Amino acid sequence: MTTNPLAKIFIRSPFEPITKHAEITKEAIEKLNAAFNLFFERDYSRMETLCKEVIDLETDADNIKAKIREKLPSGILMPVSRGDILDLIDHQDKIADQAENLAQWLLIKETDSIPLKMVEFMKRIMDLNVKIAEAYLNAVKEFKDVIETIFMKKEINDVMKYIEIVENLEGEIDRIQFTLRNSFFDFKEIDPVSLYYTTKIIDIISDISDKAEASVHRLRILIAEK
Amino acid sequence: MLIWLIIAVLVGVYMAWNIGSNDVANSMASAVGAKAITLKQAIIIAGILNFLGAVFVGSHVTETVRKGIVDPSSLTDPTIVVYGAISALLAASFWVTFATWKELPVSTTHSVVGGLLGFGIVAGGSINWGKVGEITAAWIISPIFGCILAFTVFNILHYAIINSKNSIRRCRMIAPLFIGLAFFIIALSFLFKTPLGKNLSISGLSAVLYSGIVGILAMIGGYFLISRYYGHTSDGIRSVESTFRWIQVFTSCYVAFSHGSNDVANAIGPVATIYMVSKTNTLSPSVEVPFFLLAIGGMGIALGIYTWGYKVIDTVGRKITELTNTRGFTIDFSAATTVLLASKMGLPISTTHAVVGSVIGVGLARGLKAIDLGIIKNIILSWVITLPAAALITIFIFKLLTYIS
After folding, report:
1. pTM summary value
2. Closest residue on chain B to A12 (Cα)
3. So what's the ipTM on this one?
């Protein structure tokens, strides 16, 4: 009975797991933000738990990504191109990768190495990252509706709305990063290792938003496939 | 002779049972998957409508299987014809059983045609290659035709109804057209060049005319029913889907009817050969296939559905719940139209392949999230294996029978 052609022709669509993947990513970013605040409060025991949860979530996301790839045989017929879907999941997965990366760096617990003047800016960036992850998840959910309604204009506009939110938030982070970069020269007396630690963390938190922006650009390509 | 006839009827019923238990699922599962009908309703509809299709429209393809592929008049000995037909039937049913057990994708149509080809080869030069060419062309064309039809129908539904600003009103205008068209084709299949048409002394042209009237009446009836009972929610898409959910009850009847009209020949065609030769003791009697043989075939199919097929319908139906009503409708409408047209042309085709073609058509119209085109390989494989396998088994059985006697 398993060879029944009709039962075999319908295969699991990748759109639900992609949404699930984006949900996990959002959860990881939220946990990461909480861990980030605890890091500055030097509440390391609670931070550690959260960081480990972030690392676990990244593993879950990786597994979903692997499954999506596995279940997309080359002979698949979808409303959008298989290559673009694989590209989207590739980029989307990098958001969670960077979240895990930051969790690892926080676990070094060198809060004192970070110049106090920079902390507020960094916290702001992380707050914006949470908003980005939320908007990104909504964009992916709306994208699923675009597929279901076969590219209905209204649904495409809904995706566009969230794509623009992500892009605007990313722009805001870019501006904060610019200020931060300029202020580095105020800390000429800081030791090189601390400076490295600080720049590394700043780079990663801004990279989270860059990866999210790269992902929404893939979504833009996908919804343009008229 | 009588003993062969009894054996032939039994094996014929077994073949019909196979069709009912394995193949009917492919025509009924989309309506079950889209939740337009329950499993119980599917079984009732499939049983009755397969029977009706077999009895009223099954004669065309049965004639082809009976004398179109191997021309009995080209042979000299009636015994050879009886042995050939029984060998082909036995070989086909053996191959279908083996394939089901080994989980190979085969169609009863290809098995029977392969069996008859084996008979033609072993009996010597009596194959009507022109007809075989037509059938082979139909095997290629029917899934493509189903695909194009489904692609067109789904695009009409999508752009003219679902995606329009006033989808509820558009649905009321356009959906009845499809109901009318389905009724027109069914009525035509009943009246155009059929025994029933002859009995009522209806000519070809008036058959078209009467069917046209039936179609228009169905269209008007459909219009009133839809505007009275369906599509009264404010959500456009949901209204359209609920309307098509109701229409799907008709299209699942349509697809079951078409299936019976085409596939009964696979079981009854060789039986008809034996019956007619043994009864008249001439090689190629020009009388029509008797009604009761088609009825036996139709009952065999229904029996297959009630004893085993319902399980397969359930399994397949559960796997394709992703189908919405407009999509399920499109698949059923396109597949049924393809199969019924082939039946009227006397061409034995695979209903399953017509359904698969229609599914791909909806997929190409971007109506399905993910379908596996690897299935096309399966379809081609099913021919490449089945035709020679059934032919070889037939040759073996035929040699055995002539050796024993």
Report:
1. 0.92
2. B370
3. 0.88
